[in-house]
Design a protein that fits this description.
Order of helices and strands: HHHHHHHHHHHHHHHHHHHH
Shape: globular
Structural class: mainly alpha
Number of strands: 0
């Protein structure tokens, strides 16, 4: 069954709305950190432990979601994830003690690991040459979700409290579960690949454990998995501790923080969007183009973060400018790495491949907020932000270079398998 163009774009719109509001709920804990710490009398290490708990549980559920997405209808599973988002957020909103808040907040990690189904559907809705820009558009939801969460926290936090804010975001998860269930259509796996797109009907390829186990034999994918293990660490540290860093170490008031964070978040969104388009443009010239864009983003992000954090506190305007530049480069890699995974993996195991990458990313970064909290408590949050981010990014750039070396050969192998599959389908009576 071929999906209609209108159904494809309706699904993209729903995915964007889901990711936007889900990221709002997920990232609210950053700007709400001080309020939550004050209510439960938590230290930086204890608060970092709460964040780590949700990341660990999310890591455990990544391979589970990946397996389910490759076996069953992806839209229905995504609707279930949205429902779980609403319920678990409500549990954290009503938690009366720090221990119960830890448990309930950790349970939100179950739905945090549900994104591979979206990525897999996008790979079947759109051909390879358009995927990075679609991923870049969808990933705009991450900074915009953070911005929406920041505005909610700053404007409503003191009026209705952090608990009521979580009640509201949990409600959006329940509403979106209904919208996803009825509004997103399934499509045969692999139907957008050039070798299969011309066929009148594409038979659904079944999940195969043997192919799943063979993922580790793909050199490009091995290095992308390793990069994922390290590359997410800076994101987790910056996301969860930057707001408090501006509060307690730069001594900025809420108005100044807003004037800094709003343009920074908008530049992150611009970076996702630009990364997707630059990656697709580079891919049209040479197969390694997306990974070259990724390497540039990682290295320039490291350089500009170092400059930014060394700007004196009183130079707010200069700090704001350089932070925005840093935030533009940091996300350039994300949509291109996502697309590169699908350039070397067969359609029926793409959710699992993405889940493994996200699992390793979460596993590698799960303790990053806790480690950053410990470093911040002993030294400073600036030291934590800089040391963790620079070390992870510099190693990641080298790993991406190794991925780029093996990429053309692995792409050829995947397309050869699809051509053979297409030939078998055409020869069937």
């Amino acid at each position: 069954m071929k999906i209609k163009n209108s159904q494809r774009w309706i699904a993209v719109a729903i995915f964007f709305l889901f990711m936007l509001l889900h990221q709002t709920d997920r990232l609210l804990i950053g700007p709400l950190t001080s309020s939550i710490m004050a209510e439960f009398d938590l230290s930086e290490v204890q608060m970092g432990g709460i964040i780590t708990g949700s990341l660990i549980l999310g890591s455990v559920f990544y391979p589970i979601w990946g397996f389910l997405y490759d076996r069953f209808a992806r839209p229905k599973l995504l609707a279930l994830a949205s429902f779980l988002w609403g319920i678990t957020t409500w549990f954290s909103a009503i938690a009366p003690t720090a221990r119960l808040f830890l448990i309930s907040r950790a349970s939100t990690g179950i739905d945090d690991s549900s994104y591979p189904g979206i990525a897999s559907l996008i790979s079947d809705y759109f051909p390879p040459q358009k995927r990075s820009r679609i991923f870049g558009f969808l990933q705009l939801s991450i900074p915009l979700g953070y911005l929406l969460g920041l505005l909610l926290a700053l404007n409503l936090g003191q009026i209705i409290g952090w608990r009521m804010i979580y009640i509201l975001t949990g409600l959006t998860g329940l509403i979106l579960s209904i919208l996803i269930y009825f509004g997103v259509k399934e499509v045969p796996r692999g139907s957008s690949e050039p070798e299969l797109a011309s066929l009148p009907e594409v038979k659904i390829s079944r999940f195969d454990f043997a192919r799943l186990l063979n993922l580790i034999t793909i050199p490009t994918l091995r290095y992308l998995f390793l990069q994922g293990f390290l590359g997410v660490m800076p994101w987790q540290v910056i996301t969860f501790w930057s707001f408090r860093y501006l509060e307690v170490e730069r001594n900025y008031d809420s108005q100044t923080i807003s004037s800094i964070m709003i343009p920074a978040v908008l530049f992150i969104g611009a970076g996702y969007f630009a990364g997707g388009f630059l990656g697709d443009a580079a891919y049209s010239k040479f197969s390694r183009g997306r990974l070259y864009v990724s390497i540039v983003g990682v290295l320039f992000g490291a350089v500009f973060l170092t400059i930014t954090l060394n700007i004196p506190n009183e130079n707010v305007e200069i700090f704001r400018t350089f932070l925005s530049i840093t935030c533009f480069f940091i996300p350039l890699a994300s949509p291109n790495i996502a697309s590169t995974v699908y350039d070397v993996v067969l359609p029926e195991i793409r959710s699992s491949a993405t889940s493994i990458q996200y699992f390793l990313g979460n596993l590698g970064s799960a303790f990053a907020p806790l480690i950053a909290g410990a470093i911040g408590q002993k030294y400073s949050l600036e030291t934590a932000l800089l040391s963790i981010s620079l070390s992870a990014w510099l190693i990641s750039s080298a790993i991406l270079g190794l991925s780029a070396f093996y990429l053309p050969g692995d792409m050829d192998k995947m397309h050869q398998a699809l051509r053979l599959r297409a030939s078998d389908l055409e020869s069937e009576p």
